[in-house]
Structures are given as C-alpha cells and as structure tokens.
Amino acid sequence: EVQLAESGGGLVKPGGSLRLSCAGSGFTFSNAWMNWVRQTPGKGLEWVGRIKSKADGGTIDYAAPVKGRFTISRDDSKNTVYLQMNSLKTEDTALYYCTTGSITITGFDYWGQGTLVTVSS
Amino acid sequence: QSVLTQPPSASGTPGQRVTISCSGSSSNIGSNYVSWYQQLPGTAPKLLIYRNNQRPSGVPDRFSGSKSDTSASLAISGLRSEDEADYYCAAWDDSLSGPVFGGGTKLTVL
Questions:
Q1: Would you give per-residue pLDDT tens digits along chain A (121 residues)?
Q2: Residue B79 CA, distance from chain mean position
Q3: What is the four-CA torsion angle of B7, A44, A52, A87, rounded to 10 degrees?
Q4: What phi-psi label fits residue B83: left (phi over 0), alpha (psi between -120 and 50 degrees) or beta?
Q5: What does the alpha-carbon distance between residue B64 and residue B106 come to, in Å, rounded to a whole number?
Q6: How does pLDDT run across B86-102, given as a tens digit for each residue?
Q7: In chain A, N or C: fewer CB atoms in 10 Å?
Q8: Contact B47, B37 (CB under 8 A)
C-alpha cells in the first residue's frame, strides 16, 4: 500500500523558515516524481513545486509565488522529499500535501494527509 | 481567481447522473491532459480521472471524464450519498509552466 506521511508543519512568524518532510513507502520512491501542493480555504489547491526522479534528470520546478524562497530536495536513501521554506509570508499559510506523479502522465496519483503551516505574528 | 473555472456547487439525487464542468484556455486544457480529484470532507484529495478519461484501478466506472477544446467534464452516474465531496479539475499550463487547478465544485447529494 502506498503511503505518504508529511511532517514539520507548525506556527512560524513572517520572514521565518520551516522545513517540511514527506516520507514515502509502498512504492519505489527513487522512481517517483514528487510534488508539493498546498490548500487554503480561500485559494483552493495550488501546486508549489516538483522534483523529478534522478533517472529523469532530477529537475526541480517551482510555482511563481514561491520561486526563490522555497527549495525542494530528495533523499532517496531515506525515501523522503523535503520542502525548505524561507522568507515565509502570511499568504503561505496552508495545508501542505506531498503527492506522487506527473500531472500530464499519471495525474497526482497518491497524496499524503497534509501538514499545516501557519504564518502569523 | 483560479486559472480553471468550475461551478462552485452542484447537486443531484441518489441514482441521478450529474456533470461538473471545467473551463480553461488554449494554454492548459486546450493543449494538455485533464485530471480530476475527489476530496471527501476532512481528507486529502484522491485521483479520480487522469489523461482526460482514464480511471485509476479501484475507481468505479460510475465516474467518467471527457474533454472538448478548452473545456472538460466529470460525469458521475448512479449518484450515491458517499459521492458528496469537493471535486477539482487540473491540467498543465504551458504559459505558467506548471499545473493549475480549478476552484473546486462542492457536490451535494440531496
């Protein structure tokens, strides 16, 4: 059974940093493209970024609102993908999900349960 | 506000067939595959349809997807109470160089 478990969310002040983790199991993690998607009541679902598998080049792409502030990385030996979030803004407040897959090939086929990030003074 | 446009709500009675629309543009739906997601209350989204009309294993054939030009639709036949959920469409956007989502449609089973 495929499982994704996010962790690392919490309350942080504007300008602060936070690192989210997502541990995967039940599939060959090293072959998976991993995404971060966030959800807010006001803006719905929003793609944050994606890291391809190393076999597919390991390319990392980000959505415009987070480019230059967020960094995605992966450790295939730990079956874990990370989202380092710096210079956080109040508008980054959201429930952050990690997902597997490619939107154009498989869709986002598996989702974790999400971890809540609240940016507030 | 969302790049893809969905009606905020839809409803139907048990056994009925309902459709949810998703409108985009030539840079997203018009040139890329559409996927659909179901989000039950308090849970994470779940993939229902990918590549416009493909169902992952385990998704009932009551759910079907279609696409025409810059619009897509999700149809649910034989509506059940457990289908009450939020439904989202998504597609790659060539102009934004990333996936975009619809604002979601809340389906109520009357």
A1: 999 999 999 999 999 999 999 999 999 999 999 999 999 977 789 999 999 999 999 999 999 999 999 999 999 999 999 999 999 999 999 999 999 999 999 999 999 999 999 999 9
A2: 15
A3: 150
A4: alpha
A5: 17
A6: 999 999 999 999 999 99
A7: N
A8: yes
Best probe of the A interface among B1, B31, B33, by most A CBs < 10 A, is: B33
Chain B residues bordering chain A (beta-carbon distance below 8 Å): 1-2, 32-33, 35, 37, 43-47, 49-51, 56, 88, 90-92, 96-104
Of the candidates A112, A109, A107, A55, the residue with the CA atom closest to the CA atom of residue A83: A112
Single-letter code of the amino acid located at A49: G
Secondary structure, 3-state, chain B: CCCEECCCEEEECCCCCEEEEEECCCCCCCCCCEEEEEECCCCCCEEEEECCCECCCCCCCCEEEEEECCEEEEEECCCCHHHCEEEEEEEEECCCCEEEEECCEEEEEC
Q: How far apart are CA A27 and CA A49, in angstroms?
A: 21
Amino acid present at B63 = F
Tell me if A47 and B99 make a contact (CB, 8 A cut-off). yes
